[in-house]
């Protein structure tokens, strides 16, 4: 992407969501003074335009004063508007009324009512800036309802599949769209940086499919899955595709869920959400701290709780700023910057409080990496004077854990916490292949001549459906692969 394409988004981040007095420095591109001056001229108009909120809407929703070309304006049918008594029936993303959308409206106004209230309250803090980043990138503002469907506007939301943040990026996709994800930081949790990445990803999906229904479905299932569905059913109509069996129920429900959230979110009073206490926009200042700064020490200087500092900087996943950075822009509550400016000994907050490990026999970083689940490169950076491949007994090795921390602390749960869903799937899988049906019920193919190559997303059941071969036969014939682990893309299974 060229610099000018990035510019509108980057310039937006020179300001926080709430004020024109704070700055946000993008790590990959710094606008020139002339470009900033041009931005200041336009910014006043944008802020003035953004100030009014759609009446009875979640903050950040598209409304009459934000509808502009080249975006389309989508209307719900007059009969539906009259039947539901809607106050706002215009959207800048396609919104349809059918039984699937109605089901989700019923859920969020019924059993899921408390979920919707929590989502909406958090929207007051994050939705306006997410909406503005979408608009500055030429995308519909009502895509905030995709983030609402993904995470309920939670920075720390984490799915069983390891999707993280308000936009629920998987690691590969997040890195592909410019987010830094390593031991120290996970920018998928940063609502500003993640929104830039989401805008670029959504623009890519829309340019690929030419439809917001398919683009949002692709955001959930992946562009490859949606592309194959289009070729399989010979149509670009999402509703036609969703009638088939190829897409997972999660994806079939995803698009109508977003539409339902948009309908309710822009008609809060109509659906009985009259008493929403929107959280206030996160007002902050920035201080520059050194790399490897201990946030516990920084918190003491600022006279703040450690958790408060972390709340303002959700992308920092550990207890210190990244050691590989010379300086780090840390967000702090308004008023805290003065205490930092007055603090003279800023070098004193640089971390030196690490846990240590002393191997009893010859070892290596690779061995220690497996033992503590710490990347080799992190160990190397903490122990630059040690040999990576040959460590003598009784060598002191620094580990990236704070000295007074337990490894069971919530800060390290992403490393040591096993996914209950993943464990359950493995148990079910093991039971399946060790069952009588798996061992004896199927036919054993002695001299196979036909093989099936496992694709991404395949299960044994799906392979059986695609090939017409009983699952018990597949299990018995391919036990040399299946007994060790679940099948993986690229595995060749004998089927005939």
Can you describe what's shown?
- With 496 residues, the chain is mainly alpha-helical.
- It has four domains: 52-265, Lysozyme (Orthogonal Bundle); 285-349, no CATH class; 354-410, Membrane-bound Lytic Murein Transglycosylase D, Chain A; 420-494, LysM domain (Membrane-bound Lytic Murein Transglycosylase D, Chain A, Roll), CATH 3.10.350.10.
- It has 23 helices and eight strands.
Strand content: 5-15%
Q: Count of helices?
A: 23
Proportion of residues in helical segments: 40-55%
**Average predicted local confidence, pLDDT:** 84
What is the name of the CATH topology of the largest domain?
A: Lysozyme
The beta-strand count equals: 8
Sequence of strands across the biggest β-sheet: 1-2
Q: Domain count, please report it.
A: 4
| CATH C-level class of the largest domain | Mainly Alpha
What composes the largest sheet?
2 strands, antiparallel
Distance between the termini: 48 Å
What low-confidence regions span 5 or more consecutive residues with pLDDT below 50? 1-51
What is the 3D shape? flat
**In the CATH classification, which architecture of the largest domain applies?**
Orthogonal Bundle
Helix and strand content put the structural class at: mainly alpha
Q: In brief, what are we looking at here?
A:
With 496 residues, this protein is mainly alpha-helical.
Break the fold down into its secondary structure elements and pairings.
Elements (H helix, E strand, L loop, with lengths): L2 H10 L20 H18 L23 E2 L2 H7 L5 E2 L7 H10 L4 H24 L7 H8 L19 H6 L14 H19 L2 H10 L1 H11 L4 H4 L7 H17 L18 E7 L4 H8 L3 H7 L14 E7 L3 H6 L11 E4 L7 H8 L3 H7 L14 E6 L10 H4 L3 H15 L1 H6 L9 E3 L6 H8 L3 H7 L1 H4 L9 E3 L2
Antiparallel strand pairs: 1-2, 3-4, 5-6, 7-8
Helix pairs in contact: 4-12, 5-8, 6-12, 8-9, 9-10, 9-12, 13-14
């Amino acid at each position: 992407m060229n610099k000018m394409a990035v510019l509108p988004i980057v310039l937006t981040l020179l300001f926080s969501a709430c004020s024109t007095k704070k700055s946000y420095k993008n790590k990959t591109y710094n606008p020139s003074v002339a470009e900033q001056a041009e931005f200041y001229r336009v910014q006043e108009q944008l802020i003035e335009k953004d100030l009014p909120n759609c009446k009875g809407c979640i903050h950040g929703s598209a409304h009459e004063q934000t509808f502009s070309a080249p975006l389309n304006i989508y209307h719900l049918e007059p009969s539906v508007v009259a039947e539901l008594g809607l106050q706002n029936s215009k959207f800048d993303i396609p919104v349809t009324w059918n039984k699937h959308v109605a089901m989700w409206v019923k859920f969020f106004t019924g059993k899921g009512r408390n979920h919707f209230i929590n989502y909406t309250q958090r929207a007051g803090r994050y939705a306006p800036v997410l909406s503005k980043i979408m608009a500055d990138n030429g995308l519909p503002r009502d895509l905030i309802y995709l983030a609402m469907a993904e995470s309920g506007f939670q920075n720390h939301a984490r799915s069983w599949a390891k999707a993280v943040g308000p936009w629920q990026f998987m690691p590969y996709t997040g890195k592909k769209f410019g987010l830094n994800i390593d031991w120290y930081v996970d920018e998928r949790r940063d609502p500003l940086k993640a929104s830039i990445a989401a805008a670029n990803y959504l623009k890519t999906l829309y340019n690929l499919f030419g439809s917001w229904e398919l683009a949002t479905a692709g955001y959930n299932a992946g562009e490859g899955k949606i592309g194959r569905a289009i070729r399989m059913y010979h149509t670009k109509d999402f509703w036609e595709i969703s009638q088939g069996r190829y897409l997972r129920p999660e994806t079939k429900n995803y698009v109508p869920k977003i539409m339902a959230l948009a309908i309710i979110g822009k008609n809060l009073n109509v659906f009985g959400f009259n008493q929403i206490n929107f959280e206030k926009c996160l007002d902050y200042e920035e201080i520059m701290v050194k790399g490897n700064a201990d946030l516990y020490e920084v918190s003491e200087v600022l006279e703040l709780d450690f958790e408060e500092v972390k709340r303002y900087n959700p992308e920092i996943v550990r207890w210190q700023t990244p050691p590989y950075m010379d300086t780090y822009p840390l967000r702090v509550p308004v008023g805290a910057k003065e205490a930092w400016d007055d603090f003279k000994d800023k070098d004193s907050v640089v971390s030196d409080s690490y846990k240590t490990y002393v191997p009893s026999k010859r070892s290596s970083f690779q061995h220690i990496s497996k033992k503590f689940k710490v990347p080799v490169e992190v160990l190397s950076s903490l122990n630059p004077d040690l040999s990576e491949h040959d460590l003598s007994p009784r060598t002191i090795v620094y580990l990236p854990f704070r000295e007074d921390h337990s490894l069971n602390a919530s800060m390290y749960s992403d490393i040591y916490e096993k996914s209950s869903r993943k464990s359950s799937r493995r148990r079910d899988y093991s039971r399946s292949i060790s069952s009588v049906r798996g061992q004896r019920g199927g036919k054993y193919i002695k001299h196979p001549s036909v093989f099936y190559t496992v694709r991404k997303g395949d299960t044994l059941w799906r392979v059986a459906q695609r090939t017409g071969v009983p699952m018990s036969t597949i299990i018995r014939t391919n036990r040399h692969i299946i007994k060790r682990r679940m099948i993986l893309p690229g595995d060749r299974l004998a089927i005939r």
